[in-house]
Design a protein that fits this description.
About 50% of the residues lie in helices and about 10% in strands. The protein is mainly alpha-helical. It has a three-stranded antiparallel sheet.
Length: about 130
């Protein structure tokens, strides 16, 4: 069984399955995590507001995503003792340090989506009538 090492030294190799940076890369590449981080960019946000901004995410998945981000030190959860209860989520310094790289990736995705969609259509058109592999 492969284990993840905790030796996070410079020069770590993300292609090595035991490298801890691979787990970090996996978290950031999660379907919802990068969206949640971007919503939190402007400051503390309540759970219901996060759901509105991220759209189709279920409460269960949002909760799981927030817990994972909190566990990784990217998000803090603050509970206010009031009625009704209030919980805010916000980025830590580490979480804020992720905003720059995510902005670059977002810009790339938004700029290249027409080209990617065209490539998909061309691929699908070329495969029509082709017998399945296997």
């Amino acid at each position: 069984m492969d284990t993840i090492t905790t030796d996070a030294r410079p020069g770590a190799d993300i292609m090595d399955p035991r490298c801890p940076s691979r787990v970090v890369f996996q978290r950031i590449g999660d379907k919802w995590a990068s969206l949640v981080v971007q919503v939190l960019a402007d400051g503390p946000v309540r759970f219901s507001e996060l759901r509105k901004h991220v759209h189709v995410i279920t409460p269960k998945v949002l909760t799981q995503t927030l817990r994972a981000l909190e566990r990784d030190g990217l998000v803090t959860r603050t509970v206010f003792a009031q009625v009704p209860p209030r919980v805010d989520y916000q980025l830590t310094d580490l979480g804020r340090s992720l905003l720059g790289p995510l902005a670059v990736l977002r810009e790339w995705a938004e700029s290249n989506v027409p080209t990617i969609l065209h490539a998909r259509d061309a691929y699908d058109d070329a495969r029509e009538g082709t017998p399945p592999e296997g």
